[in-house]
Amino acid sequence: MEGTSAVVVDQLTVHRGGNVVLDSVTCQVAAGSITGLLGPSGSGKSTLIRSIVGVQRVSSGTVQVLGKPAGSKSLRSLIGYVTQAPSVYADLSVRENLRYFAAIMGASPSDVDGAILAVGLKDKSVALVSRLSGGQRTRVSLAAALLGSPPVLVLDEPTVGLDPVLRRDLWEMFHELAGRGTTLLVSSHVMDEADRCSDLLLLREGKVMAQGAPVAIRDRTNTHDLESAFLALIDSEEAMAR
């Protein structure tokens, strides 16, 4: 799928409680890329992710993943999804959780050990999830998403609460996955993670402010770092609105 889009979002609008959460969002996620979905809290990142995964009720617009409508039954085994809140069972061990998810997904049991190693939890494999730290629970959820080697990974703030060393290790793993052709969409509100991505999608108040490679966004705003670029885009938008 090199050179194609794994995800295509066209004029997507989502309302919740009478409020516009996403306002005519149009964007694409290139196959085999690491696309960073960045923006402040409340910008609509999680809603866009839920729309791509197919679990969000949308008001209008379309979302296609791997050429199929988001939420299609045939996509269930092709998308690995990590939510902000850990989505594993607290009363099971790490290994028991992954064996369970491997069974219901039809993934090979041999994938379990590989997923545990990939997220650095080998020494916690028999520990109950309820006894793990918040960051460790997030890693169990990530390991579950890796089962079956899905071609698309959608990760909602996967590095929140993790120490710098583990964050570095996870980003190295993300790049290894992308190098093997996996498409990753990774949301974050931490700008220093943006330069780790091949492409960026910047959201604010439910609208796309910019999309492009980090260097292109810095060049466009004549800034040296992405936090300054983001602020420059906000200032420009507010100036145009006056």
Summarize this structure briefly.
This protein has 242 residues and is α/β, with parallel strands linked by helices. It has helices at 45-53, 94-105, 110-118, 134-146, 164-179, 214-221, 226-241, and strands at residues 5-16, 19-30, 34-38, 60-65, 68-69, 79-82, 152-156, 183-188, 199-204, 207-212.
Describe this structure in words.
There is one protein chain. With 242 residues, the chain is of the alpha/beta class. The chain has a domain at 1-78 and 183-242: P-loop containing nucleotide triphosphate hydrolases (Rossmann fold), CATH 3.40.50. It has 7 helices and 10 strands. It has helices at residues 45-53, 94-105, 110-118, 134-146, 164-179, 214-221, 226-241; strands at residues 5-16, 19-30, 34-38, 60-65, 68-69, 79-82, 152-156, 183-188, 199-204, 207-212. The strands form 2 sheets. A 6-stranded mixed beta sheet has the order 6-7-8-3-9-10, with helices on both faces. Strands 2-1-4-5 form a 4-stranded antiparallel beta sheet, with helices on one face. The mean pLDDT is 91.
CATH superfamily of one domain: P-loop containing nucleotide triphosphate hydrolases
Biggest beta-sheet profile: 6 strands, mixed
Question: Which architecture of one domain does the CATH hierarchy give at level 2?
Answer: 3-Layer(aba) Sandwich
Helix and strand element order: EEEHEEEHHHEHEEEHH
Percent helix range: 25-40%
**What would the average pLDDT be, to the nearest integer?**
91
DSSP summary: helix tally: 7
Shape: globular
Q: Based on DSSP secondary structure assignment, what is the total number of beta strands?
A: 10
Might you state the CATH topology name of one domain?
Answer: Rossmann fold
Q: Which segments are poorly predicted (pLDDT under 50) over 5 or more consecutive residues?
A: none
Cα radius of gyration in angstroms:
18 Å
Structural category: alpha/beta
What is the strand arrangement across the widest sheet?
6-7-8-3-9-10
